[in-house]
Amino acid sequence: MSELLALHDLGKDYDTDAGPVSVLKHLTLGINEGEFVAIMxxxxxxxxxxxxILGCLDVPTSGSYVLDGRDVGVLGDVDxxxxxxxxxxxxxxxxxxxxxxxxxxxxxxxxxxxxxGRGIRNARAATMLERVGLKDWLNxxxxxxxxxxxxxxxIARALVTEPRLILADEPTGNLDTRTGREIMQLFQRINxxxxxxxxVVTHDHNVAxxxxxxxxxxxxxxxxxxPVDDFREEGLA
Amino acid sequence: MILSLLGEALxxxxxxxxxxxxxxxxxxxxxxxxxxxxxxxxxxxxxxxDSIASMGSNLLxxxxxxxxxxxxxGGSGNxxxxxxxxxxxxxxxxxxxxxxxxxxxxxxxxxxxxxWNTTATxxxxxxxxxxxxxxxxxxxxxxxxAMSGVRVALIGQEVANQLFGDDNPLGKSIRVQxxxxxxxxxxDAKGQSMGGQNQDDMIIVPLATAQRQLFxxxxxxxxxxxxxxxxxxxxxxxxxxxxRELLRQRHHLGVRADDDFRITxxxxxxxxxxxxxxxxxxxxxxxxxxSLFVGGIGIMNIMMVSVTERTxxxxxxxxxxxxxxxxxxxxxxxxxxxxxAGGIAGIAVGxxxxxxxxxxxxxxxAVTAMPVLLAFGVSVAVGIFFGLYPARKASLMRPIDALRxxx
Lengths: 237, 407
What we know:
The complex is a heterodimer.
Chain A: E1 3-16, E2 19-32, E3 36-40, H1 47-54, E4 62-67, E5 70-71, H2 77-86, E6 88-91, H3 103-112, H4 118-131, H5 147-159, E7 165-169, H6 177-194, E8 197-201, H7 205-208, E9 213-218, E10 221-227, H8 228-234
Parallel strand pairs in A: 3-8, 3-9, 6-7, 7-8
Antiparallel strand pairs in A: 1-2, 1-4, 4-5, 9-10
Helix pairs in contact in A: 3-4, 3-5, 4-5
Chain B: H1 2-15, H2 17-53, E1 59-64, E2 82-83, H3 84-92, E3 96-111, E4 114-123, H4 127-130, E5 135-138, H5 143-148, E6 152-155, H6 157-164, E7 173-176, E8 179-187, E9 202-206, H7 207-214, E10 222-223, E11 225-230, H8 236-250, E12 261-265, H9 266-309, H10 311-319, H11 324-361, H12 369-395, H13 399-404
Parallel strand pairs in B: 4-9, 6-8
Antiparallel strand pairs in B: 1-11, 1-12, 2-10, 3-4, 3-7, 3-11, 5-8, 6-9, 7-8
């Protein structure tokens, strides 16, 4: 399998009032196409920062990040926006749907920024909503449906551009255990069926167990990188 | 590409209908005020221009009495120095086309049981030509009638209404200061003069008749005013000069003596008036522009609040692929659409108000294309100008900060 993304000796510093703080230190990591990776770590370990860099919402201070053959670290705002639009699909903890737009409009939104016409946009959005089991709710508004359903809409929105990489940041954080499990099963199924690469950030072992590979961060460094099952046997958590 | 962002802008506006409406209202009021005020200004300009034009074209008016220099002088015609002979001499000048010596006074009219107090103008036959005044019915008097003292009268529309109602006044005998006159003509309606008098409330009688039988002046043969029409606009200034020289000579005025008459060049009056009313238009427009400006600040205010309120939405849009330019364009489109809609509605309201003002308050208004297009253009410019800063602020947000924002 080919490598979809590669971090090499990557570092990220933030300027704070108490002086510069290194959040990520000399990170080297490669993820292949079709992998399902969970990123774990305690608070302050740098997993959110890593997520933002992987998602091209932030750029590294040092080192390189190559995504889909492009060195993302040197791209400007316009090119970063294009990479986010074409290569990445986001799923957030808080769903982040537009509350006043219908489900179809929400799911079709990423296509607006790919300059795709309204007819095609809505057709593709409807197909995607059907795939996540919401075909009876196309014209509902997000506040009228449950949290689990909202997260399905967010997943449909992430998938509608047919991205190379799905990034999920605590996707089950706002859901109860049972609904969370259903969402993770949906991720698993998509990964299994279409071979789409998944990276899920979580602090929950049960959530991480749906992935095949685990990266555990501690204090800005990779502490563990290997199969999920082996990690639990080591008993580090 | 603009098209799909337009959809997003419209959707965002539709989601906040009341706010969108209130913002547009600010622009609407501003544009309507500009359109209305400029319409009133231009209407006044046209009204003044028309009433000056209704005096007659290429018109010079000579009045008795010294020009007002320092000190207080009597009103026009108080010391009658102009005579019919003066008027005839002026008529001999090459550049003078028509001359009408005129006397005026208040008279009491009686017809049957009806009484009416009005102004009588005694003048020559050319008077109607100078003022380009047509007759609605009947005939005018001839030059020989004007000089012979026959008792005939032309009456204005208002006088006809007051004395005769719906009856035909032609050929009827009316009493003017107890002297019987025969009505031979009915004047066309002329409306208000520049001084605000109703020009339809008067009668015109032959000059000699007025002098001898109505006003019986102690100065025989004097007139209060002479109206002169020049042959062409170019003749106005030279003619004014020749008249001054002629009258000074005829009145035996020494080199040091002041004029004992005043000459008014109506073309100059008209130019001055149109300058003044033009300034009025600009002033009214400028005052109204302030409200348009305030409306623009309203837009900026609302858009600033909107950007803060929608920080998270901006973050979401950026995360799923919107570039800074997309965000900038969307917010800019929103403010431009709001101001454009407000502008169009404002033009409609402004024109409606202008028509209403004309109907209710009898103020002349004139709506021309230029100020309407200008107001519309300015409203769009206001949208861009005041929308740009908030839109830029939105587009410069860092997506991670925007996403983390807790509204």
